[in-house]
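Onboarding guide, step 5: your first structure request.
Type a short instruction followed by the sequence, for example:

Predict the 3D structure of this protein.
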Amino acid sequence: MKENNQLVVFGLNNQHYGLQIENVSEIIRIMEITRVPNTQYYCKGIINLRGAIVPVISLSLRLGLEENKLGRDSRIIVTETIKGKLGLIVDSVYSVTRYSNDEVEKSETMNGEDRFIKGILKEENDMILLLNLKEVMED
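The system replies with structure tokens like these:
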């Protein structure tokens, strides 16, 4: 039986990633992003989301991947943690899925080297890499 854990499943560079739904406040279409000088290479700028200033990053660049051009399916996943809000630009958002903790596997090949990935969830013929949002938000 599946526990009540839920993931927002999204795509980056033809790979599926998952983010725990309790960290997601909303998913929005790409909007105008105001650039901020002297920020990290993966920081795209800030957006005004109903009066709240939200920093936005390219999740692809943050994870060390090649950045795709923004397209019709591109989205900003607005996350919220104790540290505040952060917008993550992703190639597309697919679904919300349920999973149980015992379905999550640690990768033998990663050997804990990828601090951005908490584990792997196998689903049918696909693998979903579970994102460690806390590490993504660290400088």
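Each response can be followed by summary notes, for example: The chain has a mean pLDDT of 91.
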